[in-house]
Write a structure and sequence with these properties.
The chain has 168 residues and is mostly helical. The protein has one domain (5-167). The protein is 80% helix and 0% strand. It contains six helices and no strands. The protein has helices spanning 5-27, 32-49, 52-69, 77-96, 103-125, 135-167. The chain starts with a helix and ends with a helix.
Length: 168
């Protein structure tokens, strides 16, 4: 599906906001995760406004642009390996498991997806840094990702109900 001029303009503005969040994540060290989460929320808006294929292209574009703009490349690794792809995969999971009877299945698939992305990023990152994982770090990571999933869903719901109509 081709994008119309209004969607292209919206994607350009969202890409600029996304890059601001990624740049701030690199500069303001104390709030790195908050800004990375915010950058991933922008991908959720793109998923709502366009189709999945356009969302993947937006994500790839944001990663390439961040590679050139963000001074500290290591800070955006979580965004590139976990938060960005999960923002798109979450929408795919929710589209296919939408009934109330499959809520447990939906949460299970999301947990498996998050864990696969986290394990993949761990194996990639351990070649760059000596990482020591213990059980508490894994549990804290799981809880943070579940909280992120809840906040992400709430933000998308709020965007659809209150913000989307004002933009169009």
């Amino acid at each position: 599906m081709l994008l119309n001029g209004k969607n292209i303009a919206l994607l350009g503005i969202l890409l600029a906001i996304n890059q601001v969040f990624l740049y701030l994540a690199s500069i303001i060290e104390s709030n790195t995760l908050i800004f990375l989460f915010a950058a991933a929320l922008i991908i959720g808006v793109v998923v709502v406004e366009t189709e999945i294929r356009s969302s993947w292209m937006f994500f790839i574009t944001s990663c390439l642009l961040a590679f050139f703009l963000v001074p500290n490349k290591f800070d955006i690794a979580i965004y590139i390996m976990i938060l960005g792809p999960y923002s798109i995969l979450k929408e795919l999971i929710e589209r296919h498991c939408f009934t109330k009877n499959t809520k447990g299945l939906e949460i299970g698939i999301k947990l498996v997806t998050l864990n696969l992305l986290a394990i993949l990023s761990y194996f990639i990152m351990r070649y760059m840094l000596p990482l020591q994982l213990n059980i508490w770090l894994i549990i804290i990571g799981e809880v943070l990702l579940l909280c992120y999933d809840y906040v992400f869903g709430y933000f998308i719901h709020y965007y659809i109900k209150h913000i989307r109509n004002r933009i169009k």
